[in-house]
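Technical annex, item 7. During the second reporting period the consortium partners agreed on a shared format for inverse folding records so that results from different sites could be compared directly. Each record opens with the tokenized structure and is followed by the designed sequence. A conforming record, contributed by the partner at site C, is shown below for reference.
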């Protein structure tokens, strides 16, 4: 028993968020971490932080992005690195009012950030070489996810799924979602790969919301989109 605990010492990963690490002790190999929140509240940003932190620590991280556009995760990584370089430049603060992700993502501030692009690309390729993003096709099911993660066993240290409710659950969404989360737990137990899963909270229909969500707050995508 003691040997098992000691063996875990070097296998606990960081969230990259100090509060989470202090509260939960980090991400353990036996963990399925469910990150839940309403739409637009920062779930994908949390996934980016977790993925980037662990890749920068030399871990191999695979993230399956079902919701975002192709290259969205890479762009989320790249933008803050570019902003840092702009603001560190002598006189860079004069550009502060123009710096925003939406304008950058459509090339409107390339006159400000463009000269740093190659430098940042090189940093990402070097510092985050263990980070791999998969953008599956439509109709990606829990079977597809299960097979993909099992194929990665031995070649990855952490898997992220963004997000759960974009899995294809078949005809009965609630039953399919329940079966899928059980499959993900079994997958974690069989492979020893920690899995971070992002999920929506269902639309609020109560006069007073609870401080912490309960199980019935996590609902199928038909009720949250």
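Designed sequence (site C submission):
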């Amino acid at each position: 028993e003691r040997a098992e605990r000691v063996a875990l010492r070097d296998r606990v990963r960081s969230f990259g968020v100090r509060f989470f690490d202090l509260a939960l002790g980090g991400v353990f190999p036996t963990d399925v971490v469910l990150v839940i929140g309403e739409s637009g509240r920062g779930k994908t940003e949390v996934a980016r932080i977790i993925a980037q932190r662990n890749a920068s620590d030399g871990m191999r991280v695979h993230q399956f992005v079902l919701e975002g556009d192709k290259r969205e995760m890479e762009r989320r990584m790249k933008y803050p690195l570019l902003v840092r370089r702009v603001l560190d430049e002598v006189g860079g603060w004069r550009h502060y009012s123009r710096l925003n992700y939406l304008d950058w993502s459509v090339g409107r501030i390339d006159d400000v950030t463009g000269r740093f692009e190659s430098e940042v690309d090189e940093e990402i390729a070097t510092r985050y070489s263990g980070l791999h993003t998969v953008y599956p096709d439509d109709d990606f099911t829990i079977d597809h996810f299960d097979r993909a993660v099992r194929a990665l066993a031995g070649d990855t240290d952490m898997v992220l799924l963004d997000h759960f409710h974009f899995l294809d659950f078949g005809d009965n969404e609630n039953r399919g979602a329940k079966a899928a989360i059980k499959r993900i737990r079994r997958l974690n137990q069989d492979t020893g790969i920690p899995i971070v899963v992002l999920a929506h909270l269902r639309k609020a229909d109560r006069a007073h919301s609870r401080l912490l969500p309960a199980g019935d707050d996590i609902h199928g995508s038909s009720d949250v989109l």
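Residues 173-191 form the longest helix (19 residues). Confidence is low (pLDDT under 50) at residues 220-225. All partners now use this format for quarterly exchanges.
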